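Reagents: none. Just compute today. Multidrug transporter EmrE-like cation transporter.
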Amino acid sequence: MSAVAFALILTGVLLNAAAQLLLKAGTNVIGHFEFSLENALPVGLKLAFEPHIFGGLCCYVVSVVVWIMALSRVPVSIAYPLLSIGYIVNAFAAHWLFGEAVTVQKLFGIGFIVVGVYLVARS
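Predicted 3D structure written out:
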């Protein structure tokens, strides 16, 4: 895999992770909500105008463009498993930003992901 292809994949993964973190930050601002017919419009507007949510959606849009560029250079059977790097990024970023727990069980899972990504990237 070329350096450009790897950079595109990593950029796509990081944009996807940033999108998830921004969506979580946005829902933290808005708080718990339920969708029903009666509140669909007010909740939808609240979500639409929350800056973190908007930023997360923008990250998704850019990540799709970057991902298409990556797929034009790398087989999907190699590129797609590398998306799991996002789990690692999100676990530690969520701990740092939101105080979410990084348990021993999660660390073992992350270890398996690291080994898997290494094996896939070398193939």
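Residues 6 and 50 are 33 Å apart (CA to CA).
Action item: order primers for follow-up constructs.
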